[in-house]
Hints:
Distance between the termini: 52 Å
Shape: elongated
Strand content: 15-25%
Helix content: under 10%
Structural class: mainly beta
Largest sheet: 5 strands, parallel
Number of helices: 1
Radius of gyration: 25 Å
Number of strands: 16
Order of helices and strands: HEEEEEEEEEEEEEEEE
Amino acid sequence: MAEFAHSAAGIDIHPGARIGRNFFIDHGTGVVIGETTEIGDNVKLYQGVTLGALSFPTDEEGNLHRGFKRHPTIEDDVVIYSNASILGPVTIGRGSAIGGNVFLTHDVDPYSKVTIEKPDNRIRQRTPPVEHGSTVCHGPRRGPARRGGTQGAGNTPVDR
């Protein structure tokens, strides 16, 4: 069933995950829910959410330790927005909202709102294209000319 859901909708839910009533995934592509995840009632996820593990611990001989909780617990009435990643055996408290693109590896108290700080986007002004007849040149080339281009002819467009 899990493989069918993944191939049909792009949603990967491990069959060991425990999911409560009225669970809703909106635009589910890329949602991943790990084996020991527990999801309460009335939980809503958006696209790209990962409820995953940090890693598999190993013993001295390199054997994987299994059979213990490695994934998040999401309590009732939680909303997790697009591309949030919640990793490890953490608890997201009842009634919380986790914002888009948040990366969490620790518990969140009930009725909390978690968001990332406003990103500091860098916006550069592009040079407007210069029209040469029916061809558009995007300003002087930087770097070596490509094969087939015109090189060293003043304002002639290079590599149309």
